[in-house]
Amino acid sequence: MKQSSIYAFHLNQKGLWLSTSSGVYLLDFAQEKILARYSDTQLGEFYIPGNHIAHIHEDKEGVFWLASKGQGLIRWNPDTKKSKHFTRKNTGLSDNIIYAVYEDDFGNLWLPSNYGLNCLNKASNQVSQYFKDDGLTNNEFNTISHHQDKNGNLYFGTIDGMITFNPKDFNQKSEAIPFIITKVNRIDQQTDSLINMF
Length: 198
Known about the structure:
Elements: E1 6-12, E2 15-20, E3 23-28, E4 33-38, E5 53-58, E6 64-68, E7 73-76, E8 83-86, E9 102-103, E10 108-112, E11 117-121, E12 127-130, E13 141-148, E14 154-158, E15 161-165, E16 185-188, E17 193-196
Antiparallel strand pairs: 1-2, 2-3, 3-4, 5-6, 6-7, 7-8, 9-10, 10-11, 11-12, 13-14, 14-15, 16-17
């Protein structure tokens, strides 16, 4: 761990989790002691399908979502030790270098990457992608420039500025407006004029 880069911290009841360039570490902060290291070089219960982990998000079910630099998004349950990979090939992510994972109130995970911003729906596994043409300042995001505030607003730094938005703006339901026919005209072939039908 002495030669590893630490990208982010996550604190829960088990201890302090570190996302690093050599896997995920669990620390006992009070005793300043490493309890476990998880990576693709470890065996058995300490194995996860990734090594370079940039960010950790723990959802309400206790499942960890790991942003990896090269292996895409990793869904990992620390209790069952089961994991699942989400990549360009099997899920349609825009890139396998993911810098962060943030969840919104609608069950979506927002994933800034090396090429575009991805939004993965946890229930359907469907991915939406956003690029410079959609309003991003740049298609390439920054490794440690990201944040979610208490109101759910997301802040993502790119290599050319920052974007901020609230995911609820993407989920506004439009008001159902009834379709009403108010007028019908037809062309009179003889006079080449419009005739009101009703």
